[in-house]
Design a protein that fits this description.
The complex is a heterodimer of chains A (442) and B (112).
Chain A (H helix, E strand, L loop, with lengths): L2 H13 L6 H4 L5 H35 L5 H27 L37 H22 L6 H23 L4 H5 L7 H19 L20 H20 L8 H33 L4 H16 L7 H24 L8 H19 L4 H30 L5 H6 L1 H6 L11
Helix pairs in contact in A: 3-4, 3-5, 3-9, 4-5, 4-6, 5-6, 5-8, 6-8, 6-14, 8-13, 8-14, 9-10, 9-11, 10-11, 10-12, 11-12, 11-13, 12-13, 13-14
Chain B lengths: L1 E7 L4 H10 L6 E7 L6 E5 L2 E5 L2 E10 L4 H12 L7 E7 L17
Antiparallel strand pairs in B: 1-5, 1-6, 2-5, 3-4
Helix pairs in contact in B: 1-2
Classes of the chains: A mainly alpha (442), B alpha+beta (112).
Chain lengths: 442, 112
């Protein structure tokens, strides 16, 4: 009897004492049979919790970078978008993104009317998907990713978009658009067959959120007072940089689940070692992005800009997300550092186009996401042409699709609050409550 | 009775307070304010865009003293708050028509 089998027997006897020695006569599956399933399911659960917590990270980052008069609204959008995403992903998204054999248009569009069904209660080993993980853990792990995509949009459009038009967009993004484009790669669709490589979603998750945010920011227009008639940019500082920093650290933590869980297996020595390798690379890329932004802003502006350092860490994380496994630690360092450079250079560039992105979501998630997807060619086995094709496919589909949806919502119910509401703050006008009632307004 | 209104650099508050208590001032009102004078504003950079800081943080002191003491107070504030650099602040002296201590009902100089 091998040691694991003994362990399994002992556990069975502890859990089910009433069944007594009858168990001895039945064959108990060994670790080789059920171990990978249990370990991978556990990986999905733990990584899923971490990625779930990224919702808190986005909320704090955005809460800190908006003015205090808009914080209640921003928090409402964050918990609203997460919760709608969770429901939509059950109703349509999960099976649309992972169609298996159920494609509506092979390789392009999955089934639309197929809800997620979990494993039965107390599923027997014989009935479980022993080569992978439980459905519940897989569904949960994939669902927290789509919520991250929607969070990216909320930050860019903060301080001027109405609540319900935003949430309607989130419903369409998380229920339909993200799952369709996601299926092309992670659902085994045409891009996966073409050899496109995006390990944890620099393109599939982050640039999709970035494209949707860019389309929204263009249709919505900048905040009142951000751009003067002479083209001068007027910065609108956030209300709480301690919260923004906390949010960034929470996102950083969550990213270990985001990238590590995307190994999608933990049942062998190789897999579990790879997961740890991913943690180390992910951390290195974030640190390099932050340090790069710190040094660059010090050199360019004479004083370091904390908000840019926070964005730099996130850009490092997005950059390594397309290939967090293959690079060496030095590889993760320079890939993340380039992400930091991209953020510091593209935040002012967006301002020149009068595209008002409150938290820097577009530079961090879209531009660094594109970079990360290209960077796969340096350490992975990807082909640059295929990578660019994938980037373009996601860009065209999400940007054009989002533009259409934003224009329809705008025509149907309007997107922006009126001028007086925007100046007074969305909290009192739209929500009827302030986030910090005892403090003075900014 | 005189009301002395002084604006000073925030980091000079403790020195000014010590100088005033040393000469027997027994009360003052302190407010954090923002404003501009000949120091005017300066520029800062936030997320790559330059912006003007038009109002500079200052501390405003309001001190009510007997007329005889006013010059001494002005002198003490001037000495303690001066750095010699632009933005050291200003001092104004106004007449007070009436004063009343709420607890006892004492008036004018007795109320100070």
């Amino acid at each position: 009897m091998n040691p694991m089998l003994k362990l399994g027997l002992a556990a069975t006897l502890i859990v089910l004492p009433q069944m007594g020695l009858a168990q001895d006569t039945e064959a108990v599956p060994g670790f080789d049979e059920i171990g990978p399933y249990i370990m991978t399911t556990l990986l999905f659960c733990i990584a899923g919790f971490l990625v779930f917590f990224m919702a808190a990270g986005f909320a704090m980052l955005e809460g800190g970078l908006v003015r205090s008069k808009n914080v209640t609204m921003q928090m409402t959008k964050n918990i609203g978008l997460y919760s709608f995403a969770a429901i939509m992903y059950w109703l349509i998204g999960f099976n649309l993104m992972y169609p298996g054999d159920g494609w509506t248009i092979a390789g392009w569009v999955g089934p639309f009317f197929s809800q997620t069904v979990l494993d039965p209660v107390g599923v027997a080993a014989a009935d479980a998907d022993l080569g992978y993980a439980s459905i519940g853990s897989d569904f949960f792990f994939q669902l927290v990713f789509v919520a991250a995509t929607a969070s990216i949009v909320s930050g860019a459009l903060a301080e001027r978009i109405k609540l319900w038009p935003f949430l309607i967009f989130v419903i369409l993004l998380t229920g339909v658009m993200y799952p369709i484009s996601g299926s092309w790669q992670w659902g085994g669709g045409w891009l996966a067959e073409a050899g496109f490589s995006d390990f944890a979603g620099s393109t599939v998750v982050h640039s999709v959120g970035g494209w949707a945010a860019l389309a929204g920011a263009i249709v919505l227009g900048p905040r009142i007072g951000k751009y003067g008639k002479d083209g001068k940019v007027t910065p609108i500082p956030g209300s709480n940089l301690a919260l923004a920093t906390l949010g960034t650290f929470i996102l950083w933590l969550g990213w270990f689940g985001f990238n590590g869980g995307s190994q999608l297996a933990m049942g062998t020595v190789g897999d579990v070692s790879d997961v740890s390798r991913i943690f180390a690379n992910t951390n290195m890329a974030a640190a390099a992005g932050a340090v790069t932004a710190l040094i660059l802003t010090q050199l360019m502006y004479k004083k370091p800009d904390l908000t840019m350092v926070l964005n730099g860490a996130l850009a490092g994380l997005v950059s390594i997300t397309a290939e967090p496994l293959a690079p060496t630690l030095f590889g993760a360092l320079w890939i993340g550092a380039v992400g930091g450079v991209i953020v510091v250079l593209t935040v002012p560039m967006l301002d020149r186009f009068k595209i008002d992105d409150v938290v820097g979501a577009i530079p961090v998630h879209l531009f660094a996401g594109i970079w990360g997807t290209i960077a796969v060619v340096f350490y992975g086995s990807a082909n640059i042409v295929t990578q660019l094709m994938g980037i373009a496919a996601y860009g065209v589909f999400t940007f054009v699709g989002s533009l259409i949806v934003w224009f329809i919502i705008k025509a149907a119910m309007g997107l922006r609050v009126d001028e007086e509401t925007e100046i007074n703050g969305l909290d009192m006008s739209e929500m009827g409550m302030e986030a910090y009632p005892e403090f003075s307004k900014s | 009775m005189k009301l002395i209104i002084a604006t000073i650099k925030p980091f000079k508050l403790e020195e000014v307070r010590e100088a005033l208590t040393d000469i027997g001032v027994r009360g003052m009102m302190v407010t954090e304010i923002k404003g501009f004078g000949s120091q005017s504003g300066h520029t800062e950079i936030y997320r790559g865009a330059e912006y003007a800081v038009n109002f500079v943080p200052k501390i405003k002191l309001e001190i009510a003293v007997s007329a005889a003491m006013a010059d001494q107070v002005v002198d003490a504030i001037t000495k303690a708050a001066r750095t010699g650099k632009i933005g050291d602040g200003k001092i104004f002296v106004l007449d007070i028509q009436q004063a009343m201590r709420v607890r006892t009902g004492e008036t004018n100089d007795d109320a100070l």
